[in-house]
Design a protein that fits this description.
alpha+beta; GIY-YIG endonuclease; 4-stranded antiparallel sheet
Length: 126
Amino acid sequence: MRVVILSLSKGVGSIKHRTDLKTMYVYILECSDNSYYVGVSNNAEKRFQEHALGINRNCYTYLRRPLKLVFSEIFSDPNSAIAFEKKIKGWSRAKKKALIEGKWELLPELSKSRMERPAHPSTSSG
């Protein structure tokens, strides 16, 4: 089951929270500086509120509020959730954006190194 929230009222979204103890969520927050923060939690709604309220001054998101929850994926296996979080953290911004927007078809091309991608034709006139 995939939960994707693209807009939130008053900065706090709602996620259908499952009570299964093994349920984990991988989430992506968009920060006020347009950077992305990727995290994993067994309670995505509570964790988002902690980020939004600035509970931890040492957290990456603390000085980058307000935040938007832009992606959330539910996992029944904690190890799979942790592996997916680590994988996404290594992705480029463009690849994360494609994931957020559900543009799965772009992921293989964005996975190629810059050297492997075809060059875009120049738009200059000279």
